Amino acid sequence: MPAHLTRLVIRRILSNEPIVYRDCLYRRANACLQPRAQRIRRNGFAQTRSFFGMAREPERKVKGIDLAPGLDTLIELNRAQTGQSRPPDLEMLCKALDKFFRKKYFSSETISDVEAGHALNTLRYLNENRPKEEDVSDAPRTFLKPRCFLNALEVLNKKDSPRSDAHLALTEEVFKFLDAMRPNGCEPDSYNERMIRSLAETLEIMSHYEPVRARDMLVEKYKTNRWTSQSQKPLARPWASVLQGLYQKGNHAEAQKTLEMMQELEIPTNIMMQVKETLLGVHAALGDLENTKRIYNDLSQGPPQIVEIDSGSYKAVLQCCLQHGDSKWAQSIVRSMLETLEVYYLEPADDRLDEVKKLWDVLFFWAAASGKGVDEVDRMMNVMVRRTFADGRSAQPDVETINELVSWCMSRNQLYFAERYISLGAKWGIHPNALTYYLQVKYRLSGGDIDGARAAYRQLQAVECSKEKEDIRAANELIQAMCASQKYTFSSIMALADDLTERKGRFEPETVSALSVLHLRRNELHDVIDLLQTHAFHFSEAERRKIADSLVAMVLDRAHTSTARAWDTYIITQSIFAELPRSARTQIMREFFDRGRADMACHIFTHMRELDHPDTRATADTYVVALTGIAEFAAARVAATDNVDVDADAADAEAEYDDDESRAHECRSLLDAVHNAMKLDLDLEPSTRLRNALMLAYTAAGQPARAWSFWEDIVNSREGPSFNSIPIAFRACERMPVDGERHARALWARLRKVDVEITKPILAAYVGALAGNQNTDAAKEVLLKCERDFGLRPDAFILGTLFNAAYGVSRQGDLERWIQAKFPTQWVELKRLGARKMDDGPRLFNIDRRLTP
Q: What is the predicted pLDDT for the residue at 712?
């Protein structure tokens, strides 16, 4: 812009005068050289600003979706494949996949089934688009290093890792890549210790689903590869994993077949004994006392230099004895443990001190489990301390000893003894660790002592936590308990949530649900969105469903949730949980119809139509629910408002329709929108049920003649009318201003001609159609003959339908006298039901005349 034009514009702005462009700007630019009349300047709005703009509060922005590093690229590949667009290049995908697995490995996080699906899709894409041998030199480095796949297997085989079909397929795909690479200098046709461990991790995951296929894969790998390892345990682990999976599935025949295969493959005896040691704990954990005894005897008779039963197996065996009440064999196990202790005490303390202490912990556990008191366990600890090795050292009770005893008390719901064992630890000078405080939090919460749990958590915050992340678990459980109790202030709950965030802990889905509901109750919508955007996309499908269910439950809680808040909750839910199933969406749509907000319900219907997934997209049943809801909304009803205290905006949003014309106009517009959407839906096949819903909706919307046309479509269709179609057709006749009686009589004659069974709903609907067309005499005649012709005696419902349909003060007065004379008992029942008086005079008895398609 020229300088003189800039000066002109700036002067106009400073003078608070408008800039008018009437002609060529070049000619207007010289206007300052010509004389002009003085204008009167009005003091309009003066431009002001705060000091450097610091006093102005910035508008709050919603957080974006928080995804694991690299996952966004994997999702982009999935979208590209679905939308047939250009996918990311191979090098970018490899870097993203490596970043994703590295993050999961070093952060000790698990992989959800959604993330596993994206990783699996990427690996298969990389395998399908692998450069050919002649193109490797020219292609970018697209193949991942073995370390990436080793990290992936470590994460997938974590103890707390979820299990799903996606995890199984991903594990197999990862091992295929790893087997083709042979990491750490592993020669072809040879498995070193690292590859054996990877195979064992793969088989452990496969055995959780398909142990027989895992066994076949193990046999194949054992036959085609040489296994080399410096110790025996890695060689035994794959076989033990497969057998454990078979026994856990209850497939004893295949387990026995696997043992026979091991003998045919001439598996060394030392490996077989290692496998049996693992199976000892498996059978004991499953409560299989017979097999536990058999394997224990085999191990006891074996050479001790090959295998030794560890403390964990001893504890599992004793727990199995407790489960079956076999105290006699348990006492023999305890004697065997004491004999083992005597042997260990003869060896140097440096070699056996740790094993001795663990065996004593099992003995303490057995003493507590068999009914010994805290004082007796204290005396046993004194015996342990006095028993020394040759060099004078002895085993000492530590915090793990106390934690084992407290865990046992918690499993038996003996909270008093749990506190006493913690006091016993203090007597021995044992300072609680993070697990101790976590156990305190847990058993105090189970006893309803939330304040005591908070005190234990404050102590937990001051100690260092292990890899088990006891502080994270305690914080999650404490937040859930405080939210559920509804006795604690918002600030105290959020202090815990902030502490959990600072520790970079994982929010459990139950915690996210509780906090989301808490924020929604306070109308803190931005906080809800930020919370869900941060955590919801790290959960599995089942965990996301839990959170969505809690939000849906809040929408459906009409007693405590206003309509405005329910709508905000729905909008948040459907935007973040796109997988929200059709059943839940339909339930929410019904809820808004019941709240008297048909416009909101139809918005939900529109959202369902816009979805592409078959599990969420609107179906014929969805159209029926929408049309039925519009019909009920259009019908005259008692004012229904939410029984909650709402603010002014919510009250305005939930105001009733005082003008019947405006209600009818809205019903017609909503009905037209749904009907037009049905016409455009190529996947929808019109059915009798759908046409019934159309009849109901158009009748209630004041277009009974249009509704009757759908009855004619039903009659001419291959499916034909149903029993629900007939009362709906009569209802359309009842509302017709002209020809209603003619259509009703013709339909009644046709029913009598084809000998259709006349039921009470059909009879009531026909009587209502006659009365609605001002022919009450014909209706009375039908009622007087109905017991003889159809075996139906007029009851309160039939007579109430006749009375309500005969709209008019004078007609209803005549009917009242007639019913009192002919059916006095039924009239008393009607009076007991009660009636409401309309604005124009007539009365309507409180009978349920709703029809279903």
A: 94
